[in-house]
Amino acid sequence: MEQEQHQTGLSVLGKDHIKVLFIRPPYHLWPIINESDNFLMPLSFPCLSAYLKQRMNGIEVVVYDCLPLKIGYKTLFEMIKFEQPDVVGVGDSLPYIHEGLKVLSLAKEFNPHLITIAGGHFHSHLPRYTMSHYKQVDFIVRYEGEQVLVDLLEALRSGQNLALVPSIVYRQGSDIIETEPGPVIESLDTLPLPDYDIMPIHKYSPFGKLWPRAITIQGNRGCPHFCSYCSWTALEGEHKMDKGEMRLIPRLRAKSVSKVLAEIDVLYYKYGIRYLFWVDGTWNIDTKWLDELCSAIISKGYKLGWWAFVRADMLLEQEKCGVLEKMVRAGFRHALFGGERHSEQDMKLIGKTGLNGAELLQACHILKQKYPQVFRQSTFVTGIRTETKQSLQQLGAYSRSAHIDFAAYHPLMPYPGTPLWDEAQKKGWIEEHDFSKYDMFHPVMPSETLSREEISTGTQALYQAFIMKQPWPYLRGLFSAFQIRRRLHWWFLFAVSRVLLRDMVLSLLGRKQFEGFAAINKLWKPSWYDS
């Protein structure tokens, strides 16, 4: 039997009751944002919990989110022992995979026979690397996890052939078995409402500055665009095997407005949530959908604020047809643009076609003039293949001309599963293979003319120049008539000053070298991490 060849599954074979424990481990925190803002709810856990409970009998789900609960590793080990789980699952973002793997080691230390499952971006796209290097991982659930996890647990429970379960990876003797990828969930309306009861929902961002008491919510999955570096498309798109190689097909799937409103109703009335953090890769991709959603929110009289990833060209379309005004009335308060680069040629190099940089300038000008209550933030990508010292200076000048409140400059990151990763691997561009450095702050590959160190230095100089070369617009933001913009400007001033002061003190004490603005991208270890 297949089950005899895979002894791990014997721990739940024939069991009427299976206990699943999902864990987000202790993390180091980014100091540029309020500690509370580091604790945004991982939406995958309540979504998986709700789906398991809807589709399976005899299933119990427990979640330990160590960040808001401030659970350190010593306490976590004792809590795993207390729960006595049959299955432990983790699904961390790439820079934190080592933390999730540490959790699975703790679980195996407590009970070598329990089942450990890893999911998320990294393990989905580099399953053989994970299975070859980390023996504490029994299974990988790839890509979209709801149906795959149900199929896997039911197969383990009944002793069915694991090779028939799509989108998983496991060991059979000395072999690593990858099954064919399964289909994506076509209708997101078939998904149950997230199991918010299982989460410590009032612990998320309780004293946040960027996201005050914000709860994560999702209206769509995937994206029709195919930016070469985008991890969203790589995880939420459709995957098919083609001549022995995995092929990624960009897909966009959206919940109906009524489905999303049902989730907002629960968050608003049951939990008293007044601020939403949309985790959609491109929240404003569908103007008609947004029009319907915002009209319904306004008609219900909700007093909401929200943060969202938006495309500048779509925002221009929404302004033209009158939907942007409705979005702001309904709660749109913080826009994060993917400005990325300052020229159409550069955009094409990273697969962001159809944009030339002018869209960001136009969209931010409209927000500044007509909707000043909306905080304007944008990311910019450094270290593209053609990057030079001159092009970095041009990018800095472009970003400072965009009328944004805060700029985030990130070295181009080749995440596994993206077209950029495939090209970088093929051409040997990648020089850093420590995946904990894949945090969008540490360059992992050079450009054609700049080293990684030069890209890093140039990126930090952009942060410094953004404030130092235009102090008056920033200072005016400190006294904005709009609370959210005023609060965020004060917070960023405090956060940067705090980081610089700490770095200076530690350097004077001889405990580290002074890094200046570079220190804002170094994660801090929380005091409770080891407790």
From TrEMBL:
Its cofactor is [4Fe-4S] cluster. The keyword Transferase applies. The keyword DNA-binding does not apply. Residues 26-163 form the B12-binding domain. Residues 209-453 form the Radical SAM core domain. SMART domains: Elp3. InterPro entries: BchE-like, Cobalamin-bd, Elp3/MiaA/NifB-like_rSAM, Methyltransferase_Class_B, rSAM, rSAM_horseshoe, rSAM_sf. Keywords: Iron, Iron-sulfur, Metal-binding, Methyltransferase, S-adenosyl-L-methionine, Transferase. PANTHER family: ANAEROBIC MAGNESIUM-PROTOPORPHYRIN IX MONOMETHYL ESTER CYCLASE-RELATED (PTHR43409), BLL1977 PROTEIN (PTHR43409:SF7). This is B12-binding domain-containing radical SAM protein. It comes from candidate division CSSED10-310 bacterium. The lineage of its organism: Bacteria, Bacteria division CSSED10-310.
